[in-house]
Design brief:
alpha/beta, Rossmann fold, six-stranded parallel β-sheet, 34% helix, 18 strands, Helicase_ATP-bd, 3'-5' DNA helicase activity, nucleic acid binding
Length: 531
């Protein structure tokens, strides 16, 4: 017995009214379209929408019209899903007896060889009740397959389930390339596919980049959160998250911030990571929500599925992650879209174009000096021979070649070593001929008009796919992250928000295009990118 649609598919108005009645929120048109597609059981679904926009509501709306149906959500979040702790015989019997209409499961439990869930998927009396399969945080299907191999096994589901069961992939960070790969792995039916592509932009989050000034191990750049000499009665920082890609760094940074508070207040700043028990993490999240905790120094553990409405400051420590990852992390900010927030990347100095330019100037000056010294050496020797053959009274002092070399430095270049550029100086982004034309930007400055296609190519990983520098023993900077860090100097960008716009192909969302000018994104509420 195959899944069948409702006897009468509800209208848009029916879904809107029922959603308002049951959830207290009026569903948007795109959410209603997804619900109806599930109920018709005639197509797969792609849902790309920004963090906090309401993708989760689309999972549950169909259940309002098929109360005897089952919606299965596959999620990477072990604390939300059936996992090793909750995969009990009693729970699986309850699922089989149709006591639950919503089942949230991890890939590990879903695809476990000989597991209880796989046994359910071959029973017609169970599969006939399935409304659909939702793959939440679908970008993880490609990015997490190496360390969670069950993600690779999800491709076998299409051969296990009845062909009419619709699949839906949902994410806020699906690039065109990732989307293509995910659809391929899940064998999604491209000839009959509903694609909902909303803009992933979060205009209520101001974006900023900061150059790390102090030694990485001191975390002194984070000291602005708790200024030296802070005392009770002084302003506290807003509710914050600081993301790290290393547990030990997160702990060390938390201890640094704690040390700047009086002893009886140090519990207000915590570290939060995967080494903690589920119960402990739940308690800590509750403390953050209530305000007893000011902020976390955290890792990936807080990125997915956490919904705290009023986090007003989200920081990323070091450029050690991908652009998609940092957008997910920054998306933890102000889930209440009526609030404003700030997101900042603290990046290593060597990743900034002005620092690279300064280093290149020094290298060229040193090379020029060395070249002059070598070129003059034979001439000096010949002159010495001539001088030695002259009478002693005719001798003169030798020329100071090293002084000439120093004096020959272009002082105009020297003056620009702070990173500023002459208007005719290339910034390295015009290597592609005929990429665009010169146009005048704000303040009379000239900027290069570069097509989004060219910019997207600039942001792609190298063909070699190198992610690790063995000599320096660290990750290679993601090209898209490089563009984000230097967007305000790069031709074609001039705004960091535009980097995300291109990376996630927001132009395909069908919404009114965002206008970029003067390094400012002109959105519905005109929020500027902080330089």
């Amino acid at each position: 017995m195959f899944p069948t649609p409702s006897l009468e598919t509800p209208s848009l108005a029916d879904v809107r009214d029922r959603g308002q009645e049951c959830f207290g929120k009026r569903p948007c048109h795109w959410q209603i379209k997804i619900a109806i597609a599930f109920l018709k059981c005639d197509r797969d679904i792609v849902c790309i929408a920004g963090t906090g926009m309401g993708k989760t509501m689309t999972f549950w709306l169909p259940l309002l019209f098929q109360p005897s149906g089952i919606q299965i959500v596959v999620t990477p979040l072990n604390q939300l899903a059936i996992n090793a702790e909750t995969a009990t015989w009693e729970n699986f019997r309850a699922i089989e007896d149709l006591k639950y209409c919503a089942v949230i499961v991890s890939p590990e439990q879903l695809m476990k060889p000989g597991g209880e869930f796989k046994k359910l998927l071959i029973k017609p009396e169970f599969t006939s009740r399935i409304i659909g399969f939702v793959f939440d945080e679908a970008h993880c299907i490609t990015s997490w397959g190496d360390f969670r191999p069950e993600y690779k096994e999800l491709q076998r589901l299409r051969y296990i389930l009845p062909c009419q069961v619709p699949f839906m992939i949902a994410s806020a960070t699906l690039t065109p390339e990732t989307l293509t790969e995910v659809k391929k792995r899940l064998h999604m039916r491209s000839e009959n596919l509903l694609t909902i592509h909303m803009s992933t932009d979060r205009p209520n989050i101001q974006l900023g980049i900061r150059k790390i000034k102090y030694m990485l191990s001191t975390y002194a750049d984070l000291g602005f959160l708790i200024p030296l000499g802070w005392k009770e009665g002084d302003p506290l920082p807003p509710k914050f998250l600081i993301f790290f890609d290393n547990i030990q760094e997160a702990i060390a940074a938390a201890k640094f911030l704690q040390s700047r508070l009086p002893a009886h207040l140090r519990h207000k700043i915590k570290w939060f990571n995967s080494d903690m028990t589920t119960k402990f993490k739940e308690e800590e999240v509750e403390a953050l929500v209530s305000g007893d905790t000011m902020g976390f120094c955290t890792t990936e553990s807080f990125r997915l599925g956490m919904d705290v409405s009023n986090i007003c400051l989200v920081l990323q420590w070091r450029a050690t992650c991908s652009l998609s990852t940092i957008w997910q992390r920054w998306g933890r900010a102000v889930r209440d879209r009526n609030l404003q927030s700030t997101a900042i990347l603290f990046a290593e100095r060597e990743y900034f174009d002005d620092v690279r330019q300064e280093k290149q100037h020094r290298k060229e000056a040193k090379k020029h000096k060395a070249g002059n010294s070598q070129a003059q050496a034979p001439a000096a020797s010949a002159k010495r021979r001539r001088i030695d053959s002259m009478p002693s009274e005719a001798t003169s002092a030798p020329v100071a070649w090293e002084d000439r070399a120093v004096g020959g430095v272009n002082h105009e270049d020297e003056a620009r070593r702070d990173g500023s550029r002459d208007k005719n100086e290339s910034d390295g982004s015009d290597d592609k001929e005929n990429a665009g034309n010169q146009v005048t930007g704000g303040g009379g400055r000239e900027v290069m008009a570069v097509s989004e296609k060219v910019l997207r190519e600039m942001m792609k990983p190298s063909s070699e796919g190198q992610t690790w520098n063995a000599r320096k023993k660290r990750k290679v900077l993601d090209p898209a992250m490089d563009c984000l860090i230097n967007a305000n100097f790069r031709a074609g960008f001039q705004c960091r928000r535009k980097v995300f716009h291109i990376h996630f192909n927001n132009a395909s969302s069908g919404e009114k295009p965002v206008t970029y000018a003067d390094a400012t994104v002109t959105a519905s509420n005109s929020i500027a990118c902080r330089q």
